[in-house]
Prior knowledge:
Layout: E1 8-13, H1 18-24, H2 27-34, E2 38-43, H3 52-57, E3 70-71, E4 81-82, H4 84-96, E5 103-114, H5 117-123, E6 128-132, H6 142-146, E7 150-153, H7 163-174, E8 203-206, E9 209-212, H8 222-235
Parallel strand pairs: 1-2, 1-6, 5-6, 5-7
Antiparallel strand pairs: 3-4, 8-9
Amino acid sequence: xxxxxxxxxxxxxxxxxxxxxxxxxxxxxxxxxxxxxxxxxxxxxxxxxxxxxxxxxxxxxxxxxxxxxxxxxxxxxxxxxxxxxxxxxxxxxxxxxxxxxxxxxxxxxxxxxxxxxxxxxxxxxxxxxxxxxxxxxxxxxxxxxxxxxxxxxxxxxxxxxxxxxxxxxxxxxxxxxxxxxxxxxxxxxxxxxxxxxxxxxxxxxxxxxxxxxxxxxxxxxxxxxxxxxxxxxxxx
Length: 236
């Protein structure tokens, strides 16, 4: 009996799904979705600003004021903080619809575990990956007390939101899923690869100066070419 590969679904909790769509609907990631290797779903906390009971009382209608999902921070300070309940309800909606398979909830934070290839390899085993994207001054910390989450940082810097980190995580995990890349050797870190790559033509001219491909890459001697790639990688 042939075991079919389970699809990995990325569930993104974000106030701005449009900021991710253009990237996730292009090139390799678009093809991966078309081929059923991965799926991407969006959950806007604004749609969960009211509880089911509150929404029923409002006859299914919400005013802009009722869709507000941020408020001033306790303790003072600039900016606004995303409220806990809309985010909690969004995550709960994801979990209710993903009872089958393994789930992992990722919360983006500058103080979280540094994201890496090793972390991406660890996450690829999950069939449902929930990415919680903060905005403004962040999300009310009580969200993390309601659900088991892992704090992840994509670098030692602060960004305006969690959408860009979410794209990085989705890209890094997806390319490790079997069949997403046309050739398994395309995962550079799993083979001998140089940070410097070249293609045709062998010689190009720009502003009166000629630029050539290193001779070793034209030699056809695979052992020497691999050694050159290792050397370049170490040098970089």
